[in-house]
Structure formats: C-alpha cells, structure tokens
User: Which sequence fits this backbone?
C-alpha cells in the first residue's frame, strides 16, 4: 500500500505541484489582491462600483449577446451540415472533418486578418459593391458588431460541427428509417428523431462555442477595435492602457464565473460529459 | 432526397465560409499596392521578401518556437504519467487531483497570463520568457492529459500485465510496452499542444516585455501601425505550413479524433 502511494505520488505529484504553484496560486493571489484597497484593508466596494458602472454593463451585455448569437448561428448552420456529413461515406467524411478543423489550427491573427481583407474600406465586399455601382462611398463594415460576430462564427463553427457529428454518428440509421416508413417526412424525421437524439452534442457544442465566444480576445481586438469592446478587450484596456489592475481583475473574475456557471449547468444536465 | 440536398447545400456554404477567407488572404499577399486592397493590382513578391528581412518577425518567430517546444515537452512529461495514473489506478482524492490538473481548461487564457504577470511582479520582476514558458505549460497540461488518456483507454491493460507477469519491472514495461502502443496519441498530443502554444495570443498578451514577444503578439503590434500586405504574406506562410502539418498528421494519426 505504501509502495502504491509512492508510485502514485511520483506519477501525479509533479503536474499537481506545477499547476498549484504556477496556476492556482497566482489566481488566488490576484483574486485576494483585488479586494484590497490602497490603505491595505479588505473591501468589496471596488467590485460594487465597477460592476454597476454603465461602461461595464454595456460591455457585459454586448459580450453575452455575441455569445448567444454566435451559438445560435453556429447551431443553425451546423445542424444541416453535420447531418450531410454523417450521411456521407466514412472516407469522404474523414477528409471533410480534417478540413473543418483548419480554422481552429491556424494562427488566430492570420485567420482574423483575412476578414480585414474582406471587410476593409478597400476590401473585397466594398470593391465589389462599388464595381457594381451599388454604393459610392465605402461602407463601414469593419469595426462593427457584425464583423466581430462573423469572425467568431468562423472560429467556433468547427466546434459545433465536431460535437454534432460525433453525436449524430451514434444514432442508428434505422431510427430515422423507422420514422420514415411510419409515414413521417424527412423534415419531421429530422426534428423528431435526429434533433432529440443528438441533444448531447448540441449541449456540448453550445457550451464550447458560448464560453469560447465570450472570452475570445483576438477576434474582437482586430475586428471590433475600441468601438466594439467585449469583456476580453475591455480587460486588456483596463490593464494595459488605464493601468487599473483592480478593474482588470474584476473583469477576469466575471469571465471565470460566467464560464464556470455554464460548466456547472452542464454537470447538472449531463454529469457524464463534464 | 430533397432534405439531404438542402443539407448538402448548407455544407458547401459552410466550407466556403470557413475556407474562403484563407484563399482571399493568399491572393491579397501578392498585391503591389502599399495599402491592402482586394482584388490586388499588379503582382509582387515584395511583402514575402519583407517578412524574411524584418528582425522583429524573425526574433519573435524564434521566441515562439522555443516557448512552444519547451512548453509542449514539459506538458507531455508532466501529463503522460498523470494520465497513466488516472486510467490505471483508483485512489482516494483522484477526483480532486483530476479537477486540479484539468482546471486550466475552464480559465480563459487572458486570465492565466494576467495572473502570472501580477504574480511575477510581486516576486520581483522575474524574466518575461520564464512567464511565457510557465503560462503556456499550464494551459497545455490538460490538453496532454486528455489526448493521452483517450489513447490509454484504447490500450488493453492485459498486454501490460502480461509483460509484468513475465518478469518485466513496471517502469520497464511502461517504456517498452505501454509507450510504444500509445505513440500515436502522444504524437497527436505533441502536435496539438505545439500548435496551440505557437498560435496562442491570450496567455502571451500580458507576458510580453521589452524585446520579448511571440510571433502572434508581434503581428498584432505591427498591424496597429502598418497597413501594408506584409501581415497578409506572413499569414499566408503560416496558413500553408499549418495546412501541411494538419493534413499529414491527419493521414498518419487521425488528428481530428483528438481535437
């Protein structure tokens, strides 16, 4: 028994120690520090002041809105697309799946920069619209909420597709055939058989897309700029531009708590997935 | 069959949306004008040339490479034994330890980098490079743990038991029997971790200091001041390299299973 404990200690100890020292400890330190006033006393008043400020509330509301919109859009596109992928031959599907993950694997700066080329003043869409004579002045497409949502959707759609495909793969083909032979049309069969049976994939995908969207930094930084701040870019601004460590920490706490709430919901709804 | 056709149509649109931007940036990087325009006018390799002659890109490229390599190697060294313990053994406190080791997943990278920065200032301005290394290693450990756990689960423990009952010491059987059998998983973990670290912005954002920046951070800084297609050219190079790595890893290891 003693020997087993020593072996386990050697196996699990180093990583636990590493993360305790260089991950958990700094987090706890930063959290405690944010409650301390310049006099050294502990107080929650900085939290109350900042969390009630319109500056924070506007950004928080906007960030949550982006999260919901991106999740909804992803599901809307990923459901039919995943269905098409699952109905394909295994060989073709695996080729297409290896392409789907590309946005997740490429440099976020490179991927986001592509949208500047498309949405910029002299970018693809503006040049096209002007070439067709539809507009005279370039339209403002970049540094808008729409630009951020499009950029986030490109980044996170793959996660929704991966989650839905792996859920739909486990649905026996017979389930849908049975519904069809009992008189349901394809659309009814899709909504009454495929959608409920792939609910796990949808929940998992939604949590990944939502939490990813509300904490993403590069996309809102490049495509939104200081005009369309989100939690992540507001935090960067508070820390690096305004040098307000306390406010930056409060935003960090809000991000972690919001993310955690969604993981806890998942743990409640689907304990085996968390 | 009509519904399947609609689904197929959406699938094609999805791929256009996901991959179209990469094509656009590739075309744009060959333009002649000093301000990004699309479609580009003229043809020039000037921006590619510029990428390879900017010391800031070259320096930060090496920084990124060192950090990614060191952090990936460390995360695997720390993560593989932990994964092995979690898959093969049950012991008190297992759940708590598993939660600690996978906890970096639920903390946004921005917060990880920020906390390390504040911690380092407290400890007396430790070197930036060390902060980058520690932060990247921390976020990669859960990755390594998850991927290696998945491939350990697919490996029959009886094979290992057979080696041990035939007289091999546990450590020896781990290196001679277990490790060779999970090598695809370990390789996939290495590639995924390396790419994650090399591309990372959030963790690095607060951990860059005078003279030390990773490539993605340097690109962000450059974009604030210049609007020429240099970043498009550099992005094209990065995208092509990524496609080559991901596709060959997919062929050899089935990378997309582990994402």
Assistant:
């Amino acid at each position: 028994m003693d020997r087993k404990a020593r072996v386990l200690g050697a196996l699990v100890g180093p990583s636990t120690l590493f993360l305790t020292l260089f991950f958990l400890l700094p987090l706890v330190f930063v959290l405690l520090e944010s409650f301390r006033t310049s006099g050294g006393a502990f107080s929650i008043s900085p939290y109350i002041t900042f969390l009630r400020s319109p500056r924070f509330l506007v950004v928080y509301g906007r960030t949550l809105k982006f999260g919901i919109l991106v999740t909804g859009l992803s599901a809307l596109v990923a459901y039919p697309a995943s269905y098409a992928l699952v109905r394909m031959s295994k060989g073709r599907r695996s080729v297409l799946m290896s392409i789907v993950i590309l946005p997740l694997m490429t440099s976020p700066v490179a991927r986001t920069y592509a949208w500047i080329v498309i949405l910029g003043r002299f970018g693809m869409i503006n040049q096209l619209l002007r070439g067709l004579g539809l507009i005279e002045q370039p339209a403002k497409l970049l540094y808008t909420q729409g630009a951020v949502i499009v950029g986030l959707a490109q980044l996170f759609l793959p996660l929704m597709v991966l989650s839905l495909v792996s859920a739909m793969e486990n649905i026996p083909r017979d389930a849908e055939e049975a519904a069809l032979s009992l008189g349901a049309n394809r659309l009814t069969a899709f909504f009454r058989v495929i959608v409920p049976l792939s609910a796990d994939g949808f929940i998992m995908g939604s949590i990944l897309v939502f939490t990813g969207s509300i904490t993403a930094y590069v996309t809102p930084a490049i495509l939104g700029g200081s005009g369309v701040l989100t939690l992540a870019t507001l935090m960067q601004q508070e820390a690096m531009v305004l040098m307000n460590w306390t406010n930056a920490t409060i935003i960090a706490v809000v991000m972690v708590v919001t993310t955690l709430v969604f993981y806890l919901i998942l743990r409640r709804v689907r304990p085996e997935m968390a | 069959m009509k519904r399947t056709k609609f689904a197929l149509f959406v699938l094609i649109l999805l791929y256009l949306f996901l991959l179209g931007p990469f094509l656009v940036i590739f075309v744009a990087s060959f333009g002649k004008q000093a301000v990004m325009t699309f479609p580009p006018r003229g043809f020039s390799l000037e921006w590619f040339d510029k990428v390879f002659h900017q010391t800031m890109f070259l320096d930060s490229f090496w920084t990124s490479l060192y950090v990614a390599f060191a952090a990936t190697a460390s995360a695997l060294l720390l993560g593989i034994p932990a994964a092995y313990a979690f898959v093969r053994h049950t012991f008190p406190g297992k759940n708590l330890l598993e939660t600690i080791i996978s906890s970096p997943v639920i903390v946004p990278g921005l917060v990880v980098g920020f906390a390390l920065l504040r911690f380092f200032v407290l400890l007396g301005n430790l070197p930036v490079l060390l902060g980058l290394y520690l932060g990247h290693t921390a976020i990669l450990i859960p990755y390594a743990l998850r991927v290696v756990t998945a491939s350990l689960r697919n490996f029959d423990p009886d094979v290992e038991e057979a080696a041990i009952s035939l007289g091999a010491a546990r450590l020896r059987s781990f290196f001679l029997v277990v490790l060779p059998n999970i090598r695809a998983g370990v390789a996939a973990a290495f590639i995924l971790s390396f790419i994650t670290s090399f591309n990372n912005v959030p963790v690095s954002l607060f951990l860059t200091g005078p003279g030390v920046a990773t490539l993605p951070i340097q690109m962000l800084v450059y974009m604030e001041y210049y609007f020429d297609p240099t970043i498009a050219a550099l992005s094209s190079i990065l995208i092509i390299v990524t496609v080559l790595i991901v596709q060959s890893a997919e062929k050899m290891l089935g990378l997309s299973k582990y994402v």
Summary: Chain B has twelve helices and no strands.
